[in-house]
Every structure is written in C-alpha cells, then in structure tokens.
Amino acid sequence: MKLRLPAPMGSLLKLCKPFFLTRFSSLPNSPATTHLRTGHCRALVKPKKRYGSFCSSSLSSSRPLASCQFSSEHGGDGADGPAPAADLWLFNTMSRKKEAFRPKVEGKVGMYVCGVTAYDLSHIGHARVYVTFDVLYRYLKNLEYEVCYVRNFTDVDDKIIARANELGEDPISLSKRYCEEFHVDMMHLHCLPPSVEPCVSDHMPQIIDMIKKILDNGCAYQIDGDVYFSVDKFPEYGQLSGRKLEDNRAGERVAVDSRKKNPADFALWKSAKEGEPFWVSPWGPGRPGWHIECSAMSATYLGYSFDIHGGGMDLVFPHHENEIAQSCAACGQSNISYWIHNGFVTVDSEKMSKSLGNFFTIRQVIELYHPLALRLFLLGTHYRSPINYSDVQLESASERMYYIYQTLYDCENVISQHAVQLDNVPPDALDCITKFKNEFVAAMSDDLHTPVILAALSDPLKNINDLLHTRKGRKQQLRMESLAALEKVIRKVLTVLGLLPGSYIEVLQQLKEKALKRAKLTEEEVLQKIRERTAARNAKEYEKSDVIRKDLATVGIALMDSPNGTTWRPSIPLAMQEQVAPTT
C-alpha cells in the first residue's frame, strides 16, 4: 500500500451555543511604546484608540457567530485556576514538562485543535492526531467538564488551489468534498464530532479584522497588497519551539521573498494572483496566509485566552509558533495554558514521507483492517512517542480486538438470560474492579497513558473468561453479579477510549470479514477446509489435518476445536507471530 498524498479537511460550519463573553483586564494606558507581558506574550505594542481597553473576542463588526466563549473573570491563568476533583497531568510543550491541569473557568474547558487542509483523503498521521484529541475530549467529559472543542478546516490554501487547478475544479468545492470524506473517516474511527467546526472561507471578516489589529499595533507591514508579520517585533518568537530567530529560514509555507524585512517574516495576507480565489480587503483583493486562520478562528470561538491548543508535533514550528506571535500582537492578553502535541507516525520504522511513497490513507488501511483495530493500534503507544505503523502491528491489534469483543459478547449473552442485581458483588470481583478503576484513573491522569490501560484490561477480561469457561468459575456463587459488574466497568473504560462498538456481534463479524479479505479466502472456502480436516481426523490422517490447520494459520485463520465441533477466528499470520512482542 504505497501512496503519495497530502492532507484533507473542511466542511460546513457547525455552531454551538455560546457560554460567556470573554473579558480581559485593561491594558496599560501608556502613550509610549510598551512591553506587554502576559503568560507567553511579550509583544511590542503601541496602544491606539481603536485597540481599546479590552481585547474584544468578536473579531468583526459583522453579526457575531455563535461561540463557546468562557468568562475568564473567575479563573485567571491556567496555573492559578481551580484544580479538578481528580488531578490530570498533561505535558505542556511550552514548559517542556507535565503540569497539573487547571482550567481558566471552573468546570469548563476550551480546546482548539488544528484541523486538516482538505485537498485529498486523510492519512494515518491525521488519524493519530484526531484519535489522540478525541481521547482527551472524551476524558475531560468523563471528568464532568463542559468542553467546547473547536477543530477547524482549512479550505483556502496554496495546496488546495494547486490540486483544484490540476483537476479543473473549483477550490472551495474540492475542499468541501474532502471535508465530507474526512467526516466519514472520523466516523469510522469513532471520533466524536467537535463542538464547533469552522471553515476559513466562512471567517474572512474575522481574519481581516485580526490583521488590522496586528498592523495597528505595529507588528506587521504591507508590501504591494501583501501583509507580512514582522518577527523582529515579537521578542519571544521561538519560545514554543526553542528555536532562535537566527536559525529560522524561509520555506514551508513561509514564502521566499526578497522584499521581506526578515526572511522569517510570514504572510498574514497574500495579494490575489490570476486564477486564484480572492476576497476584498483593505490591502486589495487576496486571501489569508495559513497561520492567521487558526488565530482568528480560535479567538472567535474561545476568546484570546483559553485552556488547550493541540495538534501534531510537526505544527510546533512554524504554525503554532506563528499563531502565538500573531495572537499576542493582536491582543496582549492572549494566553493559552497548555500546548499539547502528538508524536510522528513512522512506516516500517521509516518516517512517513511523500518522497518515500510510504503514505497510507485511512481508507487504504480500513479496507483491510477494522477501523477500531486501527484506533486500538494508535492507542497502544503513548501519544507523544513516535509510533511505527506496520501490518504486523495492525494484525496484533485486530487479534486483540477480537479477543476483547468475543469475551464481552459471551458475557453479555450469559447475563441476558438472568435478572442480575449489582448491589451484591462478591469481594474477588470487587477487588478486580477496584484495581482496574485505579489503574485507569492513574494512567489517564498521567498524561493520557492509554497503553497502560490497554494492558490493565487483561485482568478483568481473564476474570470474565474464567467465570464463563472454567469449571471452578461456573460454580462460583453470585457468578452473574460478578460478570455483570466486570462487563460494566470494561464498557465504561472502552467508552472513554472510544473503543465501545454499538454491537459486539456486528464488529466480530466485521473483523472476520477483514481477516478473510487479507487471507484472500471466502468463508465458504474456510468452512470447506474445516470439513476436509474433520474428515482427515476421523480417518486418522493426522498429518493431513495438521497441514490444513497450518495452511490456514499461515494466512491468519486459527481453528478452534471443541466438543461441539470446529470453528475459526482471525489470528496473526504465522510468519508475523515471531515479530509480535508477547502481551500479558
């Protein structure tokens, strides 16, 4: 599965009800040039009358869009806000250490995650980003926070225009189409929809208004219809990435332009070129630069000061570094408490790269593997660590997924035949449940350590299987109560991880269908092999029966004998089993 491809994005704007209007303490009222220092902002700003004493989070005089803004009057800085009932520690890229999570507004969380640039199908690197932040979103909701999760679509960009010209398609239409494809991928991966999903093309007034503020504050300059941010006017440029200004160079969506005052200066507004979409602005027709989009949209829905800003590690520089500079230049009170970034995806231990042709789309992967197996695979490595994508890892995740759902399906089947009360659970089951709950809370509180939770699932699943299938387990008193209580706690954890399907039996069947596809067999062909093996065993042709079993195991079909006959399940193909680390 080799492929060269970019990234996807876009869709219609979805709005959520507003919470509170964000207000900020007034800025210093000195007529002279002043240094504004708040959190990570320290920008050179010349206050002007239109700047006012507050940084308005409404970035346009046009009718304001619905928002999820929280009042900061009762919370203040993230470090000083109220602590949650259970301490959650998150690694903050800005401070380069884990920090206790304290929201700016008690009980409420504002989170912005950079979305895709929609000009092609999404790849597994995108899957990792949005699964990571979906787990964070789910866990914050599990902690009973009211979360406003904003994830944007970039539907105005050089790459989109180039692809649209290639295909002879309108750029906005092309982008919208790939936004819809992205939504299909997210649905397959069980990613919850965000609270708000804004598109760049719907937010030109807000973007233009922010650029005006940056110009008015002396942190940008115009050249022939283009507007550039002046990095020299932001002394703390590089604080997120740790890069020094002299190390920066033009490139990677930072145009090479001899007219710029500093090669690292980046475009806020690009003048219109023939054949490109454009919008009217005070600087002439054109379109926004890439970085300004997220600054404007996050401020529109969350205000200039909110809790969490996230994305892939590749966005630390230049995108998030530039966002900080822009937002601080527009509003000296701009402050995001936690910058969170997930690690890279490698393919067969090589960095995913277009030049190597080792990009895989989500569609390509889920053609052969169940989407929840892909999600389980992604959660099997801590989100900040690099993760190596390979068929072996997906086979392992698929086998594990089948075991989990088969266990829960068997448990559900047995429980459904009895009236069960959960107020009388035996001590052994209670001990197992308490241990599992504690491991879950400890692991999630420790910077979302999902691999620990997946490993901890082994004990309650084993207990269920013992109660279902062993002689001792079947004789245990209050067996049904134990099964029901164990199944309930596992369901709760799988829900937070986004791994709970609507139907166990349906997913089990889908996992079998995917295994057959990888084995290039039909179910009837497998059943015919089982019949041939049964006949060989009855004829005491054990060598022949062993060959049939091994041939099927080689392609990932495991046979299971029981007094009721022989059945099959998906398994890791024999040749790959040596490459899989043993699990407990």
UniProtKB/TrEMBL annotation:
Query: What keywords would UniProt list here?
Result: Aminoacyl-tRNA synthetase, ATP-binding, Chloroplast, Ligase, Metal-binding, Mitochondrion, Nucleotide-binding, Plastid, Protein biosynthesis, Transit peptide, Zinc
- Where is this chain's protein located in or outside the cell? Mitochondrion; Plastid, Chloroplast
Q: Does the keyword Protein biosynthesis apply?
A: yes
- Tell me, what is one Gene Ontology molecular-function annotation carried by this entry? cysteine-tRNA ligase activity
Query: What Pfam families does this protein's entry cite?
Result: DALR_2 (PF09190), tRNA-synt_1e (PF01406)
Gene3D superfamilies documented for this protein: Cysteine-tRNA ligase, C-terminal anti-codon recognition domain, HUPs
Q: Which GO terms describe its cellular component?
A: chloroplast; mitochondrion
User: Which EC number(s) does UniProt give?
Assistant: 6.1.1.16
Q: What are the residue boundaries of the Cysteinyl-tRNA synthetase class Ia DALR domain, all occurrences included?
A: 439-505
A single GO BP = cysteinyl-tRNA aminoacylation
Q: What cofactor(s) does the depicted protein rely on?
A: Zn(2+)
The UniProt family comment states: Belongs to the class-I aminoacyl-tRNA synthetase family.
Q: What is the name attached to this protein's record?
A: cysteine--tRNA ligase
Q: Which organism is it from?
A: Rhodamnia argentea
Q: Which gene name belongs to this protein? A: LOC115743531
